[in-house]
Specification:
Elements (H helix, E strand, L loop, with lengths): L2 E4 L9 E7 L6 E2 L4 E6 L4 E5 L4 E6 L6 E3 L3 E6 L13 H7 L1 H14 L3 H4 L2 H6 L22 H10 L17 H14 L7 H8 L11 H16 L2 E9 L1 H14 L8 H15 L5 E4 L5 E4 L5 E3 L1 E3 L2 E3 L2 E2 L7 H16 L13 E5 L18 E15 L2 E15 L5 H16 L7
Parallel strand pairs: 12-16, 16-17
Antiparallel strand pairs: 1-8, 2-4, 2-7, 3-6, 4-5, 6-8, 9-18, 10-11, 12-15, 13-14, 17-18
Helix pairs in contact: 2-5, 5-6, 6-7, 10-11, 10-12
C-alpha cells in the first residue's frame, strides 16, 4: 500500500503552507532523507523531507498552490502501484491556483500600452514570452516553471508584468514582490527620454486606486496573533531615557580595535546583551502567563532573547539561546547570522521559537520612541528608539547629550509596574556603564 505524505505543521502557528516547487517529479525513485519539495510557511521556506523509500507515484498538489496542514501532498510506493486520490482531496484545485493570475495578466497589460511613446517598446515583449521556445530566464526552475512567490504572482497580474521576463532576487533566484515593483516602475524612470508624453505617462503610473491585496501566510499569521495579543494581554508601558554616550564611546573603541578582524559591533548587540543580563537580575520579567489549569506564572530558568527582523511581508523574531551566558562578540555573530537567514527565509523552527523575552529596535530607522505589542507567550518586550542629540543638564551645566529612549511593554498579569521599573533601572545601569557587559 502506498504511503501518503501530508502537508506537515512546520511551525507552531502554521495552518496553511505554500508548496513553492517540487524537487522531485512523478516516477522518480526516492529514499528516506531525500528532499521532495520546498514549502513556504508563515515563518520561513523549508524543504519537505521524505521518510520512505520507493517511487514518487503521484503528486496531489501543484507547485505554487496553498495547502492546508494535514492535506495529502504526494504518494510514495512500489513502481507501477496504483494510487487513488485520497477521499475528499483532488489535485485539480491545487493545479488551478497557478494559472489564475496568468489569466488576469492579459487584460492588465492593456492600460500599460495606452501611452504611445513609453509603452510602445515593451509591447512586443509582452507577447513574445508566450512561445515555448523562448529562453528561460534566471528565475525559471529546471522543469520550466517560473520561480515566483504567490504574492509576487498576483502583483504581477495586477501590474501587467510578465513574470517570465524577470530575474528574481529572492532565495535561489525566486521572484519576490520587490522584483515585480521594480519592473512595474521601470517605464516611469525612462519616461523623460520619450518626449512630450512623458509627464502623462508618469502621472498614469502613480494613479491611486482601491483594490484588495492578497496577503501571504506570514502576514495572515501576524494579523491573527497580534489581534490575539492586543485583545487578550493587558498591556502597560514604561518609558526610560538613558545616557547613550558611554555606550557609543565604548562601541567606537571596540570597533576600532576589532577592525583588523573584520568585526563590527552594533548598538543592538549591546542592548541584547544588556537585556539578558538585566533579566538575570530581575527574573520576574523573564516569565510568561501559563494558561493551563487556573492560570499560573511560569518563570524560565534560562534567558533566550529574541529580536525582531523585518523581512518581506512581515517580521520574524530569531532567538539567541542562553543569551545571558554568551559574550558580546558571540551575541553579535549569532545575531548577524540569524538575521541573514531570516531575510532568506531559511530559519529552522528551533531558531525562531522558544524566546523568553523580545527586543525590537527601530532606532536605525530614525524612530525616537514607540510602544511594541508583546509577542506571546513572553511577558514583556523592549522597544528601542534612536539615539538623539539634545541639551541635557550635567553638573548644573547645559551640555549636548546623547539620549536613547527605551520603552518596556509589560503583561500586567505577570509584571507589575514596580517590577518593570526595577528591570528598566537594571538595564539603564548596564547600558550607561557598558564596561560591565564585558565582564
Amino acid at each position: 500500500m502506498a504511503n501518503i505524505i501530508d502537508m506537515p505543521k512546520l511551525s507552531d502557528t502554521m495552518t496553511v503552507g505554500t508548496l513553492v516547487k517540487w524537487l522531485k517529479k512523478e516516477g522518480d525513485a526516492v529514499k528516506n532523507g531525500d528532499m521532495l519539495a520546498e514549502v513556504e510557511t508563515d515563518k520561513a521556506t523549508m524543504e519537505l523531507e521524505c521518510f520512505f523509500t520507493g517511487t514518487l507515484l503521484k503528486i496531489f498538489a501543484a507547485g505554487g498552490s496553498q495547502v492546508e496542514v494535514g492535506t495529502p501532498l504526494c504518494a510514495i510506493g512500489k513502481p507501477g502501484e496504483k494510487v487513488d486520490v485520497p477521499a475528499g482531496k483532488s489535485s485539480a484545485p491545487a493545479a488551478a491556483t497557478a494559472p489564475a493570475p496568468q489569466a488576469e495578466a492579459a487584460p492588465a497589460q492593456k492600460p500599460a500600452a495606452a501611452p504611445a511613446p513609453t509603452a510602445a517598446p515593451p509591447k512586443p515583449a509582452a507577447s513574445e514570452p508566450a512561445p515555448a521556445a523562448a529562453p528561460a530566464p534566471a528565475a525559471s526552475s529546471g522543469d520550466g516553471r517560473v520561480k515566483i512567490s504567490p504574492l509576487a504572482r498576483k502583483l504581477a497580474a495586477e501590474k501587467g508584468v510578465d513574470p517570465a521576463s524577470l530575474t528574481g532576487s529572492g532565495p535561489g533566484g525566486r521572484i519576490v514582490r520587490a522584483d515585480v515593483l521594480a519592473a512595474s516602475n521601470a517605464p516611469t524612470k525612462s519616461a523623460p527620454k520619450s518626449g512630450g508624453a512623458a509627464p502623462a505617462a508618469a502621472k498614469a503610473a502613480i494613479v491611486m486606486e482601491d483594490k484588495l491585496v492578497p496577503v501571504s501566510n506570514m502576514r495572515a499569521t501576524i494579523a491573527r496573533r497580534l489581534v490575539e495579543a492586543k485583545s487578550s494581554i493587558p498591556h502597560f508601558y514604561l518609558d526610560l531615557e538613558i545616557d547613550a554616550a558611554p555606550l557609543l564611546e565604548l562601541r567606537a573603541q571596540l570597533n576600532a580595535a576589532l577592525e583588523k578582524d573584520g568585526v563590527k559591533l552594533s548598538v543592538n548587540d549591546f542592548i541584547l546583551k544588556a537585556a539578558a543580563v538585566a533579566l538575570t537580575r530581575v527574573p520576574a520579567v523573564n516569565c510568561s502567563w501559563d494558561q493551563s489549569g487556573q492560570g499560573a506564572i511560569r518563570q524560565h530558568g534560562n534567558v533566550h532573547v529574541s529580536f525582531a527582523v523585518a523581512i518581506e511581508d512581515g517580521l520574524i523574531t530569531p532567538v539567541i539561546r542562553d543569551t545571558h551566558t554568551k559574550t558580546l562578540m558571540t551575541i553579535s555573530g549569532e545575531a548577524k547570522t540569524l538575521a541573514k537567514r531570516a531575510k532568506e527565509k531559511k530559519l529552522a523552527p528551533a531558531e525562531f521559537t522558544g524566546g523568553t523575552f523580545c527586543v525590537t529596535n527601530l532606532g536605525m530607522m530614525g524612530i525616537d520612541r514607540f510602544c511594541a505589542i508583546i509577542n506571546p507567550p513572553n511577558a514583556a518586550i523592549l522597544a528601542v528608539g534612536a539615539t538623539v542629540k539634545k541639551p541635557v543638564v550635567k553638573n548644573d551645566q547645559i551640555v549636548v547629550g546623547q539620549r536613547m529612549t527605551l520603552t518596556l511593554s509589560c503583561d500586567h498579569r505577570v509584571v507589575d509596574g514596580a517590577v518593570g521599573a526595577t528591570y528598566l533601572g537594571a538595564l539603564r545601569e548596564l547600558l550607561e556603564r557598558p564596561a560591565l557587559l564585558l565582564l
